[in-house]
Amino acid sequence: MNEKFFDLKKEKQDRMINGALKVFAAGGYAHASTDEIVKEAGISKGLLFHYFISKLGLYVFIYDYSVRYIMLELSTGVDGGETDYFELILQIRQAQVKAMKNYPCMLLFLNRSQEENVGEALAETEDKRGVLAEEYERIMERADLTRFRKGADVKKVERVLSYTMDGILTQQMRTGAFRPDLYFEEIKEYLAMMKKFFYT
Length: 200
Fold this sequence. Notes:
This protein has a single domain, classed as Tetracycline Repressor, domain 2 (Orthogonal Bundle). Helices cover 72% and strands 0% of the residues. It has ten helices and no strands. α1 (10-31) runs parallel beside α6, α5 packs antiparallel against α10 and α9 (154-175) runs antiparallel to α10 (180-198).
């Protein structure tokens, strides 16, 4: 990419980033159209290619930017001394929500990228593919699991929570009613309910 991209006004940078996030999140790499991206961003195609050379260059930048941005929010938003399982999940989601206040489609994009199957897109982002998963795992390793009811399958609890929270996000984005603060309040309710059900 052309490093002069960062010389642009932040508002223009964010329009380009958000346009790309939205289109890549909706269709994945293969179905993302640069025509659609420039339309979303309100820029010319020439300008897009001036900074990113190609669709692949843009995808790689967006992927790297998203991983770095979420990692930064996690580093400041998750309490290093917290050990409550549900509180740690809440803090992870709060960090993601903070990122989505500036970049609404960032989490959807990262979720969609896990299903990416285009070889060139996978190859160019390979070095970053495990970074967030490893960080989430590192955070959750300190969770105190002794508070769970006897016989509770924590892995299945985690899967149910993930499906629920990602499902709420997808539904809200699809209906055009997504607001980060309301999304966070809703997942807080689900986490509180699950905590009451699974803790002794």
